[in-house]
Design brief:
This protein has 442 residues and is an alpha+beta fold. Helices cover 39% and strands 22% of the residues. The chain contains 16 helices and 21 strands.
């Protein structure tokens, strides 16, 4: 393994790069640490996690002892995993994965490491294949773990090195390691696959690893072909727009339905945003206008329009902010509003500002999002904001993010986005003494 690893890092011109190695203390990561310490000189650092699920102080001490002996920079982090998964409603394995990779990324950014190295091997790839197969995954999940993924390098996967080869190397080179006891319990589906299903299949098929490897190679080729096709379709049917400073994507329904098996195209377009239910995507064009479907993690939404399907983040930043005049309010990183007070001189005023009679306002003043039931008075008639939205063809896709200026009783004075929604009760006239005016949001 030493030779093939060294030739790979020399060939890729990685020798002088900075690497962070994820080490648990198990045989896989201790072997990769041992090898890379020899071939990468002083360009490696080590990170180790404790998920507070079992007592793994021995693992921590083993890795620390190795790093001290070899003068390797060492990072350690202890997580409250159970609290994290309870709050976010994740499985233990998914929660632990989220925690450790978020921490790895912080270290990489802070100390400018070029790559993260993990000890995933070929047996992990086999387990992942069956895990995703039982979960009903598409080719996207069945193609296995990537040997390269942005800043992550998995050397064992590059050379199809399995667990048996790693054990042999560890024993030959007298490398110490500690077995993770949780790997031998069948409380996780992955462990059931590892401990029960794969051993049976290996007994039945002498060349089991070779068969799986050939399957993964074919799946990866087919995935690349499908991906190229999806990218071409994406260019033809997916469009981008920005209205009232809100970015969104949309698809013309008439272009979509011309494509055979369009539901699969939608599935592939939105799977990375965790829209896993292909039947929901298929039904979206049959829904009434304004109806929505949400991603599995509820972070994104797709809305049925009259002749379009809209897509964007589901997150709405709720704003209820008190303002003092004169003042500058930062709504977000891109947007700020300048509030001014001015004496009324009955002159012509520029359209880029909104003008309100300051003395008519029940102060203090606040900024808030639109809510259902909000209304203004227009010529002494009560008009719901939602009706004004419909009249101006403001989609439900972004009306939730439109901001309004209100008084202390939450009476709407006017819109802050460039929609010209006014409450007539607060407009200026010749008797107005003080004018409150401000610029529109972009």
């Amino acid at each position: 393994m030493d030779k093939i690893f060294k030739s790979f890092f020399i060939c890729k011109k990685y020798i002088n790069k900075k690497f962070l190695i994820a080490v648990s203390g198990g045989v896989d990561s201790m072997v990769i640490l041992y090898i890379l310490n020899k071939i990468l000189n002083n360009n490696i650092s080590v990170c180790t996690c404790n998920f507070n699920l079992i007592n793994n102080n021995k693992n921590y001490l083993l890795v620390l002892k190795f790093c001290i002996k070899k003068k390797i920079n060492f990072f350690f982090k202890k997580f409250n995993t159970l609290k994290y998964i309870k709050k976010r409603k994740k499985s233990i394995q998914m929660g632990a994965r989220k925690l450790r990779y978020a921490w790895f990324n912080k270290i990489i950014k802070k100390y400018n490491y070029n790559y993260l190295i993990t000890a995933h091997h070929f047996d992990d790839n086999i387990e992942t294949f069956f895990l995703n197969l039982f979960r009903g995954s598409s080719i996207y999940g069945l193609k296995g773990i990537k040997p390269f993924n942005k800043k992550i390098i998995r050397p064992y996967l590059i050379f199809k090195i399995d667990k048996n080869q790693i054990y042999k190397y560890a024993l030959k080179n007298k490398i110490s390691w500690i077995n993770d006891k949780s790997n031998f319990t069948n409380i996780y589906l992955r462990n059931q696959i590892r401990n029960n299903i794969i051993p049976i299949l290996k007994k039945e098929f002498n060349n089991f690893n070779s068969y799986i490897n050939n399957t993964l190679i074919k799946l990866n080729f087919e995935y690349k072909i499908i991906n190229r096709y999806i990218k071409q379709i994406k260019k033809e049917i997916l469009f981008f727009k920005e209205i009232l400073n809100i970015k969104y994507k949309f698809i013309y329904i008439d272009l979509l339905i011309k494509i055979k098996n369009y539901e699969y195209i939608l599935y592939r377009l939105f799977i990375k945003y965790k829209f896993y239910n292909i039947n929901s995507l298929k039904r979206i064009i049959l829904l009434n206008v304004g109806k929505k479907i949400y991603s599995n993690d509820n972070k994104y939404k797709i809305i049925k329009g009259k002749n379009k399907i809209f897509f964007s983040k589901n997150s709405i930043i709720k704003i209820y902010k008190k303002i003092n005049v004169p003042n500058i309010i930062y709504v977000n990183k891109k947007n700020k509003i300048y509030f001014f007070l001015k004496k009324n001189k009955n002159k012509y005023y520029k359209k880029k500002y909104i003008y309100i009679d300051y003395d008519k306002i029940n102060r203090p003043i606040y900024i808030k999002n639109w809510e259902k039931g909000d209304y203004v008075y227009n010529n002494e008639k009560k008009v719901k904001i939602n009706k004004i939205f419909k009249r101006n063809k403001i989609s439900s896709f972004y009306k939730d993010k439109i901001l309004f200026l209100v008084d202390k009783y939450k009476n709407i004075l006017c819109s802050l986005n460039k929609l010209f929604i006014y409450n007539n009760l607060y407009l200026i006239n010749r008797k107005t003494k003080k004018i409150l005016f401000f610029n529109f949001l972009k």
